[in-house]
Amino acid sequence: MVAFCLLCLSLGKAQTLGSRLANPEEIHDMLVQRIDVQHKSGGIVVGVITKKAREIISYGHFDASDARVPDGDTVFEVGSISKVFTSLLLADMVVKGEVKLSDPISKYLPESVHVPTRNGKQITLLDLATHHSGLPGMPSNFSWDYSQQQMFDFLSHYDLTREPGQKYEYSNFAAGLLGQILALRAGTDYETLLRTRITGPLQMNRTAVHLTPGLAADFIPGHGFHMGKASAWEIPALAGAGGIRSTANDLLIFMAANMSIIHSPLQPAMKKMLSVHRSADGGSEIALDWFLTNGRNIAYHAGQTNGYHTFLACDLRRKIGVVVLSNSNEDIADIAWRVFNYTATGPVEQQLGPAGVPQ
Asked: What is the total count of domains within the chain?
């Protein structure tokens, strides 16, 4: 069996709201248990933000040969949380009148790319951002240096098995394609678009796809199965699906903006993201790549790469945000829900296919 895991989404069953937040001591005890007792991570950082305060709780070390304790400025791969950023780029372009959610994706692709249809139905930008495109989770021609040309070749030869918009199916390929399309529309590359539209305006200076030497020095090593060293995630054409690296402090800024705790020029786009709802798995709904639960009061997304697991959640009613970043690919969604003082009424699901590759 191939010992790697590309990207996944952790979808919890229905969640029951508690009356309080877990306190820092409770969170710290969870991290000690996960790292020292269960040996399921090397270092974990938890960030919490409310209308009145922010808090960072961390524990562990970078790895066996690096005794540094991770903190709010430590850089992690965030995996599929990248999709939320990609859909925010989409929402920003919609708000600015540059694209429409109902636009067929063929409108923004080169004429040489044949976009599949089914019964006359075309794939739209909305379909990509809500995982209703009919495209598979991963392309059959996937490689670790997957290029835009490989992406377009796969798309040109793929036959849809159902009409776009008909059914939810989580797709890393669709999210990566959306990132490429938006960059083409803007006349730039994905990382430049991310920097000029999101991380620059929000002053998220430690969030990027490609790391500067300074950020690389604070990039915590990832760990895969049995805590073995894992390689960094570098897949060019799928950057919009899972290529972003970030820190707890930067992601707290991102959540503060999404919950209007701080003012941001992106607030209209962030509001637009939550205004569209389609059904998803696990009793959740999906907006523009945010998953919604608890009466649409909770927006969340998870991410997993070869050596990292991450979780981001916003309680939109109480204006509380939680981020959990771990340098192993073991699931940590339960830590985030515990911070909210939620209890799961069913098991957390991993939408994984053969060899850990999402379908």
From this structure: 1
Residue type for 73, please? D
Q: How confident is the model at residue 342 (pLDDT cuts 50, 70, 90)?
A: low
250-296, pLDDT tens digit by residue? 999 999 999 999 999 999 999 999 998 899 987 789 999 999 988 88
Structural domain of 125 = 10-351
| 4 in a structural domain | no
**Average pLDDT of every residue of the chain:** 89
Quote the pLDDT of residue 22: 77
Left (φ > 0), alpha (ψ -120 to 50) or beta: where does 110 sit? beta
CATH of the domain at 186: 3.40.710.10
Question: Which ranges constitute the DSSP H helices of the chain?
Answer: 24-32, 82-95, 125-129, 148-157, 172-186, 190-194, 213-217, 239-242, 248-258, 267-273, 333-339
Q: Bridge-partner residues for 63, per DSSP?
A: 66
CB-based burial, 66-98: b 16+ in 10 Å, e otherwise: eeeebebebbbbbbbbbbbbbbbbbbbbbeeee
Could you tell me if residue 330 is inside a domain?
Answer: yes
Domain assignment of residue 357, yes or no: no
